[in-house]
User: Fold this.
Amino acid sequence: MSVDLSQILPGEKIYKDPKEVEELWQKEKDSTIKDEKIDEKLKQAVTVYEEGKVIKGVIVAITEEGVFVDIGYKSEGVIPLSEFRDISKYKVGDEIDVYLEALEDEEGKVKISMLKARYILLWDDIERYYKEGTILKAKILKRIKGGMLVDLLGVDAFLPGSQIDIKPIPNMDEWVGKEIDVKIVKINKLRKNIVVSRRIILEEEREKMREQLLKELQVGQVREGIVKNVTDYGVFIDLGGADGLLHITDISWGRVKHPSQYFKVGDRIKVKILGFDEKKERISLGLKQLEPHPWERVGDKYKVGDVIEGTVVAVTDYGVFVELEPGIEGLIHVSEIPLAPDQKPRDVYKEGDKVKAKILSIDKKERKISLGLKQLGEDPWQNIEEKFPVGSKVKGKVCNITNFGVFVELPGGIDGLVHTSDLSWTKRYIDPSKMFKKGDEIEVVVLNIDKNERKISLGYKQTQENPWDKIIEKYPVGIKVEAEVVRVLPKSVIVDINNEFEAILPISEITKKKINKLSSIFNVGDKVPVKIKEYDIDNYKAIVSVIDYFDSDEEYEKWWKEVSKVK
Assistant:
């Protein structure tokens, strides 16, 4: 008798023992009364396979190709090893849940997945955990684009990089392998996507800590915190739920150039609560207030007349500020600093210099200390005329160069000035730096000493023979030469004669015509025909003329036409 097995149960059916099924079916058909035992045995003898369902399977082999699972069908299914977190925990004979994707794929093999089965079996729990905000354990598996892949209850979930911590993570690779607490923040059943967050737990904890902190906070309290951020104007400290600002002015009793001199992110420090605005939730912190102000013990440590050593912390036109210790500074007024007439404190001192000075006065009420340098030793100007008699030659070092001359440091630390007019007999140096550089050792002659004004005039050209007698003899008045333009002035041109001396070419000796600018006619380096017109021997000057150079008006006009045409 033929049995229509498709009527037994819906779906695709595989029969464990077809003979037994046919016998049971025949008994049930011949019986006029329904036999429940026969019906139950019939159902047990039939396995129903429906694609898209979770079924049981038994591991029959574990190889490099994957895990082979017997589901009772005509062929076995193969699950990739990547679906198993730790394959060492599985062995042949273990029964596992699998998701039946297809009874036969393109190759006629059963297609199953253990990972999808986990998602289906866990999904109801996942939805409940998501709705209730349950804190779950998750293990970070590896870093992926945008964040981390984590193992959550045996299934994959995504932890975005921004949700790992409250603060930015410098190296996310260090988190791989760690087990952390997370909450599910987003799910998609169709795509089987689960997004989790650790940050939301930290923020909730921080909010609880903040509420507790604000209840306990009082001005004057000393609390411990962690440096969260360092800026130009101060340091933000995490007090455990709320941030406070340690302003740069409250870091030290001394001067602070930048907070980074004292702190780096992550430092744990103790601070004092200076102020608290409950509405704006602003907390002002202090570090220097943990210690008494240094001025409270100034009278015990410093006395008028003491010689101290300190560090230059600021240099101004009116003096130099010296730090004796953090929070205590003294001022060396410019009048108490031995300086050359044209020197300023910043020409001698710079921040960071170590200096010794004598305490002249202490004003505890105004918190001021006056210091002096001149009082440290004998005044070098006391017997200056004996040290450097006028007319004497002395060697010194170039210590400063200006547009009006060169300062030379003489033995004993006194500076003298060589004016530009005393640098050369025959040339005027507009830029003395072309002649000397700082540190050059040169010989000079003492020209004049003004003890009251503390000024010494020096000469460099006076160390050499005056060449003007020989110049006049070699270039007598009336001689014609070719000169080179070295400077163009508003009403004259300075020319060089054979690199031996400079002469003045007035505008009246160039042309009788009106000229707005001589620079429109001459450039530095131009060659000009001139005639020596006269010498001013008292002032060491030579006057030359272009007009007198030519023997006729025709020759001059021809030259002038060429010169003005070119320009």
Notes: Residues 17 and 406 are 119 Å apart (CA to CA).
